[in-house]
Amino acid sequence: MLLALWIVLGGPDFVAQAYAIGSVLGVLILLIALGGWMLALLDLVGGVVWPALRRTVVAAGLVRPSYWLALLARASWEREPGGAQVVAAALALLHRPHDAALATWLEGKIQARARSGVGGVVATGLLAASRGDRDGARDILVGVDGFDPDFAPRAARRAANDWLVADAAARGDWITVMRRGVQPGQATAYTRFLARAAARIRGEALAGEPNPTDFGLWVSWLSAPGRKAMRPLLDQARAAPRVLHQRKPPPPASPPATAPLIDPATHADDPVAHAQALHATWLALRPKTAGQPATELEQRLSATRMQELCRAWEAAWAPAERRMRQRVAVLTAQMRAEEALAPIRRVVAGELAALARAAKLPLDSFEAEVPTATLAAAELRAELLGGVEAGSEELRARTAADRRLPPAEESRAWNQFRRRYEEAVLLGGMALRYLMFPQVHRDVCGYAVWLWNDRKEYGLSGPMFQWLLAEAEAVGDVEAIELQRKNVGAKK
Amino acid sequence: MTSAPLYVGIDLGTTNSTAAVFDGEKVTLVRNAQGSPITPSVVRIDARGNVTVGARARRFLDTDADNTRSEFKRLMGTAQGIRFQGAGVERRPEELAAEVLRSLRADVRDQIGVLPARAVISVPALFELPQTSATSEAARLAGFERVELLQEPIASALAAGWTVEDQGGAWLVYDLGGGTFDVSLLETRDGLLRVVGHDGDNFLGGRDFDWAIVDWAIAQAARDGVVIRRGDPAHAGAVRKIKLAAEEAKIELSRVESASITVPGLDVAGAGYDLDVTLDRETLERLCAPAIDRSIAVCRRLLQAHGVADGGLTRVVLVGGPSVMPVVRRLVSQQLAVPPAEGLDPMTLVAQGAAIFAATAGLEARPSAIEAVRGAKVWLQYPAMSSDLTPHVVGRLVERTGPVNSVPTEVQLGRADGLWDSPWTPLDEEGAFVLPVSLVPRKPNVFRLTGKNIQGNAVTIDPPTLTIVQGLTISDPPLSRTIGVALASNDVRVYFERGAPLPARRTFTLHTVDSVARGAEKAVIKIPIVQGEYEQAHLCRLVGALEIGGKELKQTLASGAEVELTIELDRGGRMSARALIPAIGQVFEHVAHLLVPEADPEVLASTVTATRARLGELRTDAFRRQARDSIERLGKVESALDDVGRDIDAARGGDTDAAQKARRTLIEVDAQIEAVELDRRWPELDREAREALIWTTGWVQDYGQPHEQTLYQETAKAVDKARQGRDPLELQRQLRLLRRLGSSAYGRHPEAWKHRFEDAAADVGNATDVARAQALVKEGREALAKGDNEALRRVTQKLWQLLPSAAEDRRKGHESGVR
Amino acid sequence: MSQKPDDFEALADNPFYVLGLRPDCSRIDIEREGQKLLGMLGLKLKSAATYMSPLGPRPRTEDKVRAAMAALRDHEKRLAHEFWASLPPPAAPPKPPPIPETKGPGPAPFAGAFAALGWRRS
Ligand SMILES: Nc1ncnc2c1ncn2[C@@H]1O[C@H](COP(=O)(O)OP(=O)(O)OP(=O)(O)O)[C@@H](O)[C@H]1O
Ligand SMILES: [Mg+2]
């Protein structure tokens, strides 16, 4: 190679022009290859390529170059080079204004290069985020921390975690920030700083570390990216007193209540109107658009308030029936008053159940001796169980029919299902948990086995086995515990 | 000077069609070139391609059957082409319907002097979407600029309500046509006409009487030793001739006591035969009674569904050709204990009502004349026909700028007879006014609209007049059949209930089942739109499908992605749908095929065989359980299947209508069977529960751990409760838990896996992948031989995975891709 | 978890509120009001564009008016709607609800969280 160079430089007389140009190109290619090799070598030693890429090419938002150069980051992505490529490109995409064409291009690459493995999952999640679909991104990415580290490169888990922490901070969900921010194996300087600042401001301890000192905060801040943007947070944190002992969080200051449109008190003398006004007051607090959290409802609709509402309805039925009987006569309707009232009772029960669900009230907030409340409880219970059963059945049917989704979709489907199950447990308690587990165990286990055996999605199915094990332990299902222990222990 | 309004209504019948016009005060029937108000719905295309319609075409029905077609209304909405041998052309049903409409349209021109551009066309109440859209298409082909479709019973009721003076009460419109039977329950109160509900049978009508007569005549011929078979294509020509003669005799018998059926020179499989029999009225009535009884049963069903007790009807309006028959009038009014409304013409009532409806819908038939009125242009909204004596007129200035003098600031409405004026009313800040007006009953009321500008000087307004007819208010036309979307679970997400007012629009959020990759050629998400009252999608008729294909997608669609599906129906029941996918901001609007599926006799026959087998099983079971309801239901199924068999025979002989009827009946049979199965499921589940209780008790007692035993106690209690409350869903849940507990305990038994494996192996024939299942069984046997309990367990579990499947449901639900 | 928007409409989309009528109105009132509102909506008049329900102002559409008229013509259905409409709708259009401040423990939501990572897209 050096020889060629010498010839080019030294023998202008007898070397043709074209030959010269060709040689120069050849040299350049060789140099690049050599550089690549050297980088790869370095990477093997310390895994430096990936971090370097993230700070340079990726941070500059160069999607395609990131995609190709990520091939060099062998050490960080030993099992799935395709994963490195798509994740690098997805990250680069976040670093630039949205570009639909590039997003589509990346989507194609994910389908082509990352059909399985965690890389495709993370890239799909980030891609959703780059399109502004934060709910979708969250659905896909939340499960990534559960992936078996053996199958999920740390770089992938970190990228997912960074996004999730940023998302939680942007939503003001600091509990999640503190939990995820210092999670070993996926925390980064960025997440650590956010978690520590939050812990200090809230006067709480983090998992495995004490409430941070001023010095500790400074250091984390200095090592984190985006110092300028995070400076106010640092100042706020330093201004907060350092608490060494876990302090009980102060009771949340109740938010200023939205004034009801119709004051129930003005209808105190008419049980029907009173119940309706009360009902309307709570209904009005539901979030205006679907998917928004029902914060105010959650904070204000306590079990006692719900009981009050149920009782108000209970008191309304008798006068309502009387009134309706009169109207039946006036309208000469074919129906009896009780018949007309029955569907109304069902509607009320349905709405009460939906209110309880939105306010995260457990099933046993409904009093057993108030018929309206029992009806609502039955409704809520059926809804929770039905949701889980349908979800479980869907997984089973898909397994049986061998209908394969891309891993990111599997991840999303699984996370959605798990959330439904967990909601049912949260509101329904152990009783529902016992009841749901047999079917869920059968279906999820089959699903996870299918992902493991037939699809080699070890990263996805590993956490499912773990989850099943934890659930089996919670309900004391000995047979399932035994089985899942084996599954969890299994390695490819 | 404004000429009287002109409204046109058309009854496009299977056998006969009629047109009528209404001028706001009275209805006039339109006569055709032969001077008759009734035009047979028959089209002939001769060898040279000349088209003849009506009575002149009808004459060729028996002599030149290959070039003369009738009853094409029954095929509306199907893809079936109709051939004309001589000219060698094929026409779609709607093209033939268009010929009839065109001829009626010309008759209106000849009689009134105006070629109508807009009209109301009546359709059977139970027409489904494909059929209504074919009707609209026919009108378009006939040159109508705009039409509205109206359900026939509403038309009849409207005409009856207009003619009959005394108002109020519930009444029945009984419309027995050539091939369809419709019955509607209506109610009038305070001049408001409301359809309470309808019912009917798409395959019941005068034809059935004709066929009954044909069968009788064939039986008579058999006495002469001549065998004529309805299902035999070789006899088709002879059968057609007999049927025409039978129909003539039937019509004649409405007037006289006996008539002869004479068909000389019948060609029966090569041999000649002269048919000559005499039919008397009594025999006719005996032959027709079963069909009439069927129609009355439908009436009863309708009355019952709406809680109308015996004698709760004020009157019944009889419509349709066969209603002319004395026996029909007698039986209906006797059995339902209600007097028939007199003085109404059964043959033309529908067309009259359609014309009146055109007035309520403001569908002026004259092509919009461009009258040059110079003045302030105003948009107006008012009812063209109203029962209310003081309805509102709402108006709004189109342009509010311009020379101050030409912009009105106050308006006034005055009735043309000079007996009523509204006060001067200032326009509001939007340039609008809302004014109640006063109507003279049962008349077209013309109002003059005048304006004043800011200086108080008169301003001309465009339009200067408006007309409101005082009469009936008709509630919005109701939807005849429930419309919804089939979901992957084979459930139906109902969009519009039957009876919902039209037009209507509704949006629901659905979720995709699978993901679809962008650009994936074959991947599509299908959103099937179905019509019918059944809860299970496969029993409803598929009337359209919206497809979201990977090829058109801008980006990959996640599974579980939201799809906001909007379905819209216009007043005539025409449907459009659009799907918005918010995640990717893309809209899909192309609704695929809107056709009535064709019914192949062979496919139908094999369905009948399968259904019979199922019927047999269910019957044995029902007798064992002594379930009276089920036995009765199955009896009905049995006789319906016999009907279907006959129809399939007729279909083989070339009667496409019969094939459609058979298909329809099979769907109904399916629903009956479903009901029986539902009925059977509970006892079965209950038995399962009892057995499970017995089975688990032992195992849990012997092998259960303490916490399992406590949980078992509670679960057993819950099982009992669910059994008492007859709650199948809850019982299934508790049973799962119970079995789980039992199996946990049982698993501690040393030989447990061996038994489980044997059970699964016995069921291998039902596996989704039989080959793989068999391989697994083999593997299991080896493990068994080696005594490798662990391997045996693995194999068994894999085997379970292959056993039952829920893919079945999805296939049933019209392969829906949404949930 | 998230409620479908079509779940809670018994109170808000009650035909009586849609038509601006009270439960004791006559049949003719329903036709007259309905026809008037349809006319006004047909001309896109602002004065007809919203109605007041116990859950606040709601948009009034032609579909809703037609459905309301159909529902009230049927006496059996009317009976149930009368029940829900026995509460008079709030008279005045309410003041815009106060913007809820989330003043729980801990920092306020950190809007710059994504930007701090150099991400322009969340
Ligand atoms: N005077 C009569 N007596 C008995 N039957 C008659 C008489 N006139 C016509 N029909 C029978 O009435 C039937 C046609 O009725 P009609 O004209 O009402 O049907 P259509 O309106 O064309 O059909 P559809 O309403 O089903 O579309 C034919 O079967 C015919 O034989
Ligand atoms: Mg007819």
From TrEMBL, chain A:
<keyword id="KW-0812">Transmembrane</keyword>
<feature type="transmembrane region" description="Helical">
    <location>
        <begin position="28"/>
        <end position="50"/>
    </location>
</feature>
<protein>
    <submittedName>
        <fullName>Uncharacterized protein</fullName>
    </submittedName>
</protein>
<keyword id="KW-0472">Membrane</keyword>
<keyword id="KW-1133">Transmembrane helix</keyword>
Automatic annotation (TrEMBL), chain B:
<dbReference type="Pfam" id="PF00012">
    <property type="entry name" value="HSP70"/>
</dbReference>
<dbReference type="InterPro" id="IPR013126">
    <property type="entry name" value="Hsp_70_fam"/>
</dbReference>
<keyword id="KW-0067">ATP-binding</keyword>
<keyword id="KW-0547">Nucleotide-binding</keyword>
<dbReference type="InterPro" id="IPR018181">
    <property type="entry name" value="Heat_shock_70_CS"/>
</dbReference>
<dbReference type="InterPro" id="IPR043129">
    <property type="entry name" value="ATPase_NBD"/>
</dbReference>
<protein>
    <submittedName>
        <fullName>Hsp70 family protein</fullName>
    </submittedName>
</protein>
<comment type="similarity">
    <text>Belongs to the heat shock protein 70 family.</text>
</comment>
<dbReference type="InterPro" id="IPR029047">
    <property type="entry name" value="HSP70_peptide-bd_sf"/>
</dbReference>
UniProtKB/TrEMBL annotation, chain C:
<feature type="compositionally biased region" description="Pro residues">
    <location>
        <begin position="87"/>
        <end position="100"/>
    </location>
</feature>
<protein>
    <recommendedName>
        <fullName>J domain-containing protein</fullName>
    </recommendedName>
</protein>
<feature type="region of interest" description="Disordered">
    <location>
        <begin position="86"/>
        <end position="110"/>
    </location>
</feature>
<feature type="compositionally biased region" description="Low complexity">
    <location>
        <begin position="101"/>
        <end position="110"/>
    </location>
</feature>
